[in-house]
Write a structure and sequence with these properties.
Elements: H1 2-22, E1 33-34, E2 41-42, H2 51-61, H3 69-96, H4 99-121, H5 139-152, H6 156-178, H7 186-212, H8 224-232
Antiparallel strand pairs: 1-2
Helix pairs in contact: 2-4, 3-4, 3-5, 3-6, 4-7, 5-6, 6-7
Length: about 325
C-alpha cells in the first residue's frame, strides 16, 4: 500500500509540472460553475476544450509506437468506461438538474474524445461507434449503466454516491493501466495520467457535495487509504496531454531550457536543450512520468547526465 501511495503522489506531482505545458495549447478555461447544492465550485476544465486540439497535440508530439494487445484492450475499454460516466451523468442531470453532473458530463466527453484520438491514431475499431446513450458493447458496463442509473434515481444523495462510485472505478482502472508494464506507449501514458487526474478531481467534487448534504461516501473500487489521500489533497490542475513543447524541443539560448525547460512526457528528449549557452539542465529536473533519460544535458551541460545525474542532467530519473 505504501508503494501504491508513493506512485500516486509521484503522478500527482508530475501532473502539476505538466500544468504549465497544458495551458499553452488549451483554450481559455470556461468560468467555474457554482453548484446549486452549496458554495463549492466545480470547474469545467479537464482535457482540452476542443477535441481537435487534443488530436493535433497527440499527433504532433507523440510518435506512433508499437501497440501491444494490452494497450489496445485498455484503449477500447476506457473509451466505453468514459462513455459510461458521461451517459450516467447525463441521465442524472436530467433528473436532478445539478450543475455538478452537467459540468462533469462535459469533462467525460472530453475524456472520450482524447481516447478516440488514440483509437484513430492506432487504427482500432471504435467500440462506441453510433451507439446511443446507455448502449455499450461491454456487457459489464451495460449492466453497470442499468444499475447505477436506477440507484441514482432514488434521491440526490444516491445520485452523488453513484458519481463518486464511477470516479472510484475510473481511478482504479486507470491506475491499473498506468502500472501495467505492457502499457508503456508515451501517448497512452500521457492521456491515462490526465484522465486519472480528472477523475480524482471529480471524486473530490462528488464527495464535497455529499458533505454539503451531511452525507459521507463509503469507498468502493479504491482502498480507503488512497481515497483519504485524494480527498485530503487540493484539486489538481491539468496538463499531461498537450503543450508547446512536451517533447523538449531545442533550447533557445540562456540555459537552454526552451519553452518548457526541455520537458517531455517521458523526459526522452532532454538532450536537445542546452543549445544556447546553457547548463544542460535537461527535462524539468527529471520530470516526465518515467524520468527515463534523466535529461541528457549533453550539448552544453558537460558530462552525460543520461542516468539522471551527471553533468546537470536532472538527477532524478528513476
Amino acid at each position: 500500500m505504501k508503494k501504491q501511495m508513493v506512485k500516486l503522489a509521484g503522478n500527482i506531482g508530475l501532473l502539476i509540472v505538466f500544468a504549465l505545458l497544458f495551458t499553452q495549447c488549451e483554450k481559455a478555461e470556461q468560468p467555474a460553475v457554482t453548484d446549486g447544492l452549496g458554495s463549492s465550485v466545480v470547474s469545467d476544465r479537464d482535457a482540452a476544450a476542443n477535441p481537435a486540439d487534443v488530436c493535433s497535440c497527440l499527433t504532433a508530439n507523440f510518435s506512433v509506437q508499437d501497440l501491444s494487445d494490452a494497450e489496445a484492450e485498455a484503449l477500447l475499454f476506457m473509451r466505453e468506461e468514459e462513455k459510461l460516466a458521461r451517459d450516467v451523468y447525463n441521465t442524472l442531470n436530467e433528473q436532478w438538474q445539478s450543475p455538478v453532473f452537467a459540468n462533469i458530463e462535459r469533462s467525460e466527453q472530453r475524456h472520450m474524445d482524447a481516447i478516440f484520438c488514440l483509437i484513430q491514431k492506432y487504427g482500432l475499431e471504435d467500440p462506441v461507434g453510433d451507439n446511443g446513450k446507455g448502449v455499450f458493447q461491454h456487457v459489464a458496463l451495460q449492466e453497470l449503466y442499468q444499475s447505477l442509473t436506477a440507484q441514482g434515481a432514488q434521491s440526490l444523495k444516491d445520485a452523488l454516491i453513484v458519481g463518486a462510485t464511477i470516479e472510484g472505478l475510473d481511478i482504479s482502472d486507470l491506475m491499473g493501466h498506468l502500472e501495467d508494464a505492457e502499457i508503456d506507449n508515451d501517448d497512452l501514458q500521457a492521456v491515462f495520467n490526465e484522465l486519472a487526474r480528472g477523475s480524482r478531481n471529480h471524486l473530490r467534487a462528488f464527495v464535497r457535495q455529499l458533505g454539503i448534504l451531511g452525507e459521507t461516501y463509503q469507498v468502493q473500487y479504491i482502498d480507503q487509504e488512497t481515497f483519504d489521500y485524494i480527498i485530503s489533497t487540493e484539486r489538481e490542475k491539468g496538463g499531461a496531454i498537450c503543450g508547446a513543447c512536451p517533447n523538449g524541443g531545442p533550447g533557445n539560448g540562456g540555459n537552454g531550457t526552451g519553452l518548457c525547460d526541455g520537458s517531455g512526457p517521458h523526459g526522452n528528449n532532454g538532450q536537445h536543450n542546452g543549445n544556447g549557452s546553457g547548463n544542460g539542465t535537461g527535462n524539468c529536473d527529471g520530470a516526465g512520468p518515467n524520468g527515463n533519460t534523466g535529461g541528457n544535458g549533453n550539448n552544453n551541460g558537460g558530462g552525460n547526465g543520461n542516468t539522471g545525474g551527471n553533468g546537470g542532467g536532472n538527477g532524478r530519473g528513476n
